[in-house]
Specification:
The structure holds two protein chains of two kinds. By secondary structure, chain A is mainly β. Chain A contains no helices and eleven strands. Chain A starts with a strand and ends with a strand. By secondary structure, chain B is mainly beta. The chains are: A mainly beta, B mainly beta.
């Protein structure tokens, strides 16, 4: 039982390049989330998927797109990377949609955009 | 959702009990208090959640007074491995997880 896995762990991009961050969970959870964390700050929600087949914007969605490929996988795409997107990206999942449900986080992807 | 206020940082020594207090003056009737822990280079991890009075698990205790305007996370006999950032969150029962808001947290540094 791996929990929430993310790939890659590290990535360096040049401005304007694109990439997709992958996330998978093996806990049969319904809801999945993408957050970003800038140095010394808390997490900000980028997008979330309350259930398979649905996605919605969070607090900071600009510059990102997501795909809920199936119940297990939730990917985050940067179409044209910008230095402001340099951050650590965390994927999380929870069993249900309730805010009181525990969110389980992956190890993160450290992204640097030059 | 109620805004939370917690100390930016705290220092402690191994073996001591650490209490981190979080203020949430505008907490609503159906709000719960949740704490997460984040080690360096890792994602946050759920520690404990409560509504009122006291909740205890194998990791920590959570004390919530009757007015619920504050809460205290208590870590008994900390060790060096408890060095982490601790987030106090107010989450509203019946709403979606997308309303979970992580602030800057409290950086706890445990010294030998």
């Amino acid at each position: 039982n791996a929990g929430v896995t993310q790939t890659p762990k590290f990535q360096v991009l040049k401005t304007g390049q694109s990439m997709t961050l992958q996330c998978a969970q093996d806990m049969n959870h319904n809801s999945m989330y993408w957050y970003r964390q800038d140095p010394g700050m808390g997490l900000r929600l980028i997008y979330y998927s309350a259930s398979e087949g649905t996605t919605d914007k969070g607090e900071v969605p600009n510059g990102y797109n997501v795909s809920r490929l199936n119940k297990r996988e939730f990917s985050l795409r940067l179409e044209s990377a910008a230095p402001s997107q340099t951050s650590v990206y965390f994927c999380a999942s929870s069993l249900g949609q309730a805010s009181t449900d525990t969110q389980y986080f992956g190890p993160g992807t450290r992204l640097t955009v030059l | 959702l109620a805004k939370t206020t917690q100390p930016i940082s705290m220092d402690s020594y191994e073996g001591q009990e650490v209490n981190i207090t979080c203020s949430h003056n505008n907490i609503a009737t159906n709000d719960y208090i949740t704490w997460y822990q984040q080690f360096p280079s890792q994602g946050p991890r759920f520690i404990i959640q409560g509504y009122k009075t006291k909740v205890t698990n194998e990791v920590a205790s959570l004390f919530i007074p009757a007015d619920r305007k504050s809460s205290t996370l208590s870590l008994p006999r900390v060790s060096l491995s408890d060095t982490a950032v601790y987030y106090c969150l107010v989450v509203r029962g019946g709403t979606g997880g997308f309303k979970t808001i992580f602030g800057a947290g409290t950086r706890l540094f445990v010294k030998a």
